[in-house]
Specification:
CATH architecture of the largest domain: Alpha-Beta Complex
Distance between the termini: 29 Å
CATH class of the largest domain: Alpha Beta
CATH superfamily of the largest domain: 2-enoyl-CoA Hydratase, Chain A, domain 1
Structural class: alpha/beta
Number of strands: 12
Length: 474
């Protein structure tokens, strides 16, 4: 009976693995074919000048901090804070930022979040030594107010891939220009180019070789095969987005566009002189003093910020919860790619030597985490899949001798899935993380108890069979 049960579980597990791989690949393909996220609409400044600004008193400020890359965890953190600020009656969203960059798709989602917010959003590049680089500069362009601390910089927002190959064409063009300049200088100085004295035979042989075996440079020059068109498309899209947002916020749109097209970077003092930021501040009192009297546009309506100097605004900090911190770690693109490769390798190992279930189970968990990190799977669906997978691990532990590996994997999957769950888009649900840990850690003793009872039952059956055999012998 035990062998039959193991065979059934093995067939079910293999079918589940095949279905999971097909679902993962199909969802990833659909994500690549999906249309890009639309940029938030911005009202025209000219139309807004016709109405007088309404006073917006700043009494309660929501403070959020970004000190890592821009990833899905960052967007979830900002979205949860924005929803809480709107529900609890905050007057201003203040975001401290210090980031080296991140995902373009997540950056566009954050800009859309700013555009949909009914509250003013202020970005502050701080502390000294911090920078809003790449995606951070693009996010800063969409804020209603932008401030920097002394000793910080902003810019260098040219999009690149994980391997950095979007900039290869620029390097090749620079090398070609250098070679052309060298040739022109040689001609001006009267030198004879020896390369032009090649015989017709050597030229013909080179042409035939090039026709038979085209070089990588010739392949890149073919239409649609090089990376130049891809880079131009990405750069032009971001340039138009950043320029429109910065102009709508009353800042220098041309220099924000140069941050993307020319990878320009500006320190705080230069950024203030050229109209890239609204001011330089060192602490909260200086910040509130400078924003008082500023006029901004929120969904096409003009507002004048008013701060009472005698009663400073209340600043409430919104920190990342444990689930967001763990998601921030796994959302690192390099770590997500490692999880994907590791999961695929473990599932391949399970198919090569089936029956153990340990490699395939851990591989499925790695693929689920990679799918969440790549934004292929929605966060709630991915976390629900981790919870279901955890109970599959617990079930397999009762039939497979894994020396507790499946139980530990199930415990990790259940904990992560529970912490990632309830990140819905239309509601803000919060529960105590202690409840998650208490329920998760109470399951392994029950699993161990079930295993002990099954072993005890098997031993009892073996004793009965042994007694019957001894009676027959007598």
């Amino acid at each position: 009976m035990k062998k039959i049960a193991v065979k059934k579980i093995r067939s079910i597990f293999i079918n589940f693995s095949y279905l999971f791989l097909i679902l993962f690949i199909s969802v990833q393909a659909m994500g690549q074919l999906a249309a890009p996220i639309a940029a938030p609409q911005v009202a025209s400044v000219a139309a807004s000048n016709t109405s007088s600004p309404a006073d917006l008193f700043i009494k309660k400020v929501m403070l959020m901090s970004i000190n890592s890359t821009i990833n899905p965890a960052t967007f979830n953190y900002l979205k949860v804070g924005t929803e809480r600020a709107q529900k609890e009656g905050f007057d201003l969203l203040l975001i401290k930022i210090n980031t080296p960059g991140g995902l373009v798709s997540t950056t566009k989602e954050i800009l859309s979040l700013f555009g949909e917010s009914n509250l003013p959003v202020a970005v502050w590049v701080t502390p000294e030594g911090a920078s809003a680089t790449s995606a951070g500069a693009i996010i800063a362009s969409g804020a209603h107010l932008l401030f920097m601390s002394r000793g910080t910089n902003i810019g260098a927002a040219t999009p690149v891939t994980l391997s950095g190959d979007l900039g290869e064409d620029d390097g090749e063009n620079k090398q070609d220009n250098k070679q052309e300049n060298k040739k022109e200088n040689r001609k001006e100085l009267g030198y004879i180019n020896k390369e032009n004295k090649e015989t017709k035979e050597t030229k013909e042989t080179k042409e035939t070789k090039d026709n038979i075996f085209p070089s990588s440079e010739q392949i890149k020059k073919l239409p649609g095969s090089g990376g130049g068109d891809l880079k131009k498309k990405a750069v032009n899209d971001l340039v138009a987005l950043v320029k429109s947002l910065s102009v709508a916020r009353g800042r220098n749109g041309d220099l924000f566009a140069e941050m993307i097209s020319k990878a320009s970077s500006f320190e705080a003092e230069v950024a203030l002189k050229k109209g890239l930021i609204n001011g330089i501040c060192s602490d909260f009192s200086d910040f509130f003093r400078q924003i008082s009297g500023k006029e901004i546009l929120i969904k096409g309506k003009r507002h004048r910020l008013v701060v009472n100097e005698s009663i400073p605004p209340q600043v409430v900090e919104q920190e990342m919860d444990l689930g967001q911190k763990i998601l921030d770690i796994f959302a690192n693109p390099s770590l997500a790619y490692i999880l994907f490769i590791l999961g695929a390798a473990l599932i391949y190992l399970e198919f090569q030597s089936p029956g153990g279930f340990v490699a395939g189970s851990i591989g499925a968990m790695c693929l689920l985490l990679a799918g969440i990190a790549f934004q292929v799977l929605p966060l709630n669906f991915g976390s629900l899949g981790l919870i279901v997978l955890a109970f599959v691990f617990f079930l397999l532990e009762t039939y497979v001798t894994s020396y507790g590996i499946l139980t530990v994997a199930g415990l990790v999957a259940l904990t992560f899935g529970s912490l990632f769950l309830y990140r819905s888009e239309n509601s803000f649900l919060e529960f105590n993380s202690g409840l998650v840990f208490s329920k998760s850690w109470s399951i392994p003793p029950n699993v161990i108890l079930v295993i002990v009872l099954l072993d005890f039952q098997d031993n009892c059956l073996q004793i009965r069979v042994a007694k019957k055999e001894t009676k027959k012998e007598w």
